[in-house]
């Protein structure tokens, strides 16, 4: 009988609803690779979510050669889900390497934010926002597609 609550709690993620256009995104706060806090607010127009290392590499490839502040100028925020990365590896190698990037990476270390936005693990999820509400949802499987979309999102 003790197993029923555990089973019920383990099935909760399966009941999670996908985001719908018009839905208001709940604010959250994450730290970036420099341990600087960022809170999602109504100014954010684009939310990029990478749920795996492969997806994060797509974002990195799409942003290669772009100047510092490129995402910020487009009111875009990049969230990387690193909850499955061993903490020692993240602390000793991955996060210090991210400090060389010319863009901020909001690090979801505990899986509090990225799971709110369901999507394929191997693609970058693009959530288009207006005043905190979802107005469009897109997925990008290649760096070239993502780069083109970012170029169209002129500041």
Short recap of the structure:
With 155 residues, the chain is of the alpha/beta class. The protein has helices spanning 3-11, 53-63, 70-73, 87-98, 143-152; strands spanning 29-32, 37-39, 46-50, 76-81, 106-108, 124-130, 133-140. Helix 2 packs across helix 5.
CATH homologous superfamily descriptor: Glutaredoxin
> So, CATH architecture?
3-Layer(aba) Sandwich
What is the helix tally?
5
Radius of gyration: 16 Å
Instruction: Classify the beta-strand content into a percent band.
Output: 15-25%
What is the number of independent domains? 1
Poorly predicted regions are 3-16
Q: Which whole number gives the mean pLDDT?
A: 90
Shape field: globular
What kind of sheet is the major sheet? 7 strands, mixed
| SSE order | HEEEHHEHEEEH
* Alpha-beta content class: alpha/beta
The count of strands amounts to 7
């Amino acid at each position: 009988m003790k197993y029923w609550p555990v089973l019920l709690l383990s099935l909760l993620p399966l009941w999670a609803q996908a985001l719908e256009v018009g839905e208001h995104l709940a604010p959250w706060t994450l730290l970036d690779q420099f341990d600087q806090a960022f809170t999602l607010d109504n100014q954010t127009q684009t939310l990029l979510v990478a749920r795996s290392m492969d997806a994060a590499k797509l974002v990195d490839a799409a942003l290669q050669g772009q100047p510092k502040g490129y995402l910020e100028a487009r009111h875009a925020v990049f969230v990387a889900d690193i909850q499955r990365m061993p903490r020692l590896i993240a602390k000793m190698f991955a996060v210090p390497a991210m400090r060389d990037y010319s863009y901020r990476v909001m690090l979801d270390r505990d899986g509090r934010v990225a799971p709110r936005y369901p999507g394929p693990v191997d693609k970058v999820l693009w959530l288009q926002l207006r005043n905190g509400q979802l107005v469009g949802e897109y997925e990008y499987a290649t760096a070239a597609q993502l780069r083109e979309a970012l170029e169209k999102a002129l500041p």
